[in-house]
Amino acid sequence: MTRPLIAVPARFSARASALRYAAEVAARALVEAVWRGGGEPFVMHPADPGHVAGRLARCDGVLLPGGGDLHPRHYGAAEVHETVYDVDEEQDAFDLAVARHALDSGLPTLAICRGLQVVNVVAGGTLRQHMEPDHRHVVHRVDVEPGSLLHRTTGAAEAAVSCYHHQGIATPGAGLAVTARAADGTVEAMELPGAAGWFLGVQWHPEDTAADDPAQQRIFDALVRASAGGDPGDARPRSAEAGVP
Questions:
Q1: Which CATH number do you get for residue 12?
Q2: Which of 74, 113, 163, 166 is catalytic?
Q3: In-domain check, residue 245
Q4: Where exactly are the transmembrane stretches of this chain (predicted)?
Q5: Which end of the chain is more exposed for a tag (fewer CB within 10 A), N or C?
Q6: Active-site entry in 135, 165, 166, 205
Q7: At a CB cut-off of 8 Å and minimum separation 6, what does 182 contact?
Q8: Domain assignment of residue 37, given as a range
């Protein structure tokens, strides 16, 4: 059985170990979590946003990962906060185009940290440019909405999650439902009830702990299963099925 192909937009990096020049990268923990779930991670060159539909036609699902800040002009902000960092217009244009296509076409999509913020902006929502205190290098509890997709996927009404972000959701975009919050009220997960395809967005980084936390790994398993046309609510990792190495 062929592994579903999961597109992961690459992130630009000024340098990377063992490479002489600038690089395009994806977090190892992220692609390993997709692989454990039975998917084939496809790290995608973030260029030519006008043709993402054709380029994604060969893919079965999308994972929008974390990264630097989205330029505030994309959500109508008149000023840029001094803490906004690592803005890249090429990266922004590509991620926004991928998110629009994935949501419009119903392509199964998991959005993580910046990825969730990109989806929220595509849906017409806004972001908090900076939080005080921020959630960088923080592990904290989130409370999950009973009966939500996140609840059904992880099997947990609350979870300890690994966060690294200084921005957050301000106004949810059209159709997006908040399904998890931190104790300080920060939006930690969003879903699209009634959407054409499977979608889950989390503000934390489930890949940080997925290797040791089955609830976090099940988020990736569900993306892969939805991308394969199966029941994303089935908790078995797709790698456990016959024929998937």
A1: 3.40.50.880
A2: 113
A3: no
A4: none
A5: C
A6: 205
A7: 135, 140, 141, 142, 188
A8: 5-240
Q: Is 143 exposed, middle or buried (0-12, 13-18, 19+ CB in 10 A)?
A: middle
187-219 residue pLDDT tens: 999 999 988 899 999 999 999 999 999 999 999
Considering the domain boundaries, does residue 112 fall inside one?
Answer: yes
Domain assignment present for residue 71? The answer is yes
The answer to the question of residue 67 being in a domain is: yes
113 assigned to active site: yes
Residue 178: name the closest of 154, 197, 194, 202 by CA: 202
- Is 205 a known active-site residue? yes
* CA separation for the pair 119, 139 (Å, rounded): 24
pLDDT digits (tens, 9 = 90+) for 140-188: 999 999 999 999 999 999 999 999 999 999 999 999 999 999 999 999 9
When divided into structural domains, the chain yields a total of 1
Q: Which two tokens stand for residue 235?
A: 């908790």
pLDDT, averaged across the chain: 94
Element (H, E) at 7: strand 5-9
Residue in this structure with the two tokens 């084939």, named with its chain if needed: 40
